[in-house]
Design a protein that fits this description.
9 strands; single chain; Rossmann fold
Amino acid sequence: MRGISDLLERLRESGVPMDDCIAYAMQSVDIEDFTDFDINTFLMDRPIPFLSTENGTTKTISAPHMIATLLHHLEVLEGHHVLVLGSKGGYIAALLDSMLGPRGAVTVVEPHPEVRRHTSQRLDIFESMGELRVLPIDFLEVMDDEFRPVDRVLITGAIKELLPDVGNLVGEGGFVLGPFGGPVHQRLLKRERQGDEWLDTDLGGVVFGPMDLGEAERSSLDPQNLAELLEDVLRLVSEIIEIEDETLVRLESLIASLRELPLDIPDLDEESTEDEIMEHPVIELLLMEMDWLGPMWPIFEDFLSVEIASPGSPDEDEYGMAGGHKDLIP
């Protein structure tokens, strides 16, 4: 594929982990088989869209540096069975198929019907080496012995905790790799099964979209969504600056009030009147707290607007993985 060799070389020079197996997979699997969007974005080490859903949400394949990092930490061996939660358009499954060989198996579990359909169509025409299958998420509840044990689980979207149905599939010595945390910021964790216990290894801060596409499609004025965002930002801000006790109490009270609002609040759009905007329950609640919330809001905005690191971009300065934004961004 045009431009991929130069990209991989830039990634290596910037310090992204890239062994020969990962490099071969990324050279042999054509990203253009999994998206109809312009691949120059991908070659600049940026996430690339692969689908726009009916609700207008854009789904992306992670940036090359993030994909290489995930594959590195996944530590797969030929013949492994890997479960992928969240398809990323099928591209990561195809890379894994190349790395696992003819005795390997990749099971992709995708909760969203549109994304699952896209993924199945693209993988159907992909010349796989091993076994590839794309399944709905409710299949996790009925996976029989044919699919057990799973050697590795790769989670490609943010989750708060591991689903029991997933944990039960992992064999002894196998592990789960994924972003655990809230909607704004997560930690990339390697969770290894040792008997009945899980041993966690923290691999650093990351920012992924939610595993559940329904969360990504929620309105910015959805009270539950806003409460989760504020809660996550509060945790981050508290680690860096000291927040006055009174402000902390009021912010926690605001989060609680948002959670108490009904779930069926109508959304606002460009045709909403000024009265409808001002009378919206979430807007009303925020305006009531604006005397103390106003000065805090610029700080929150700084944390909500994440700068994406692209160590493989030819336009980036030579800072390596330790420079730029400190987190790994997909």
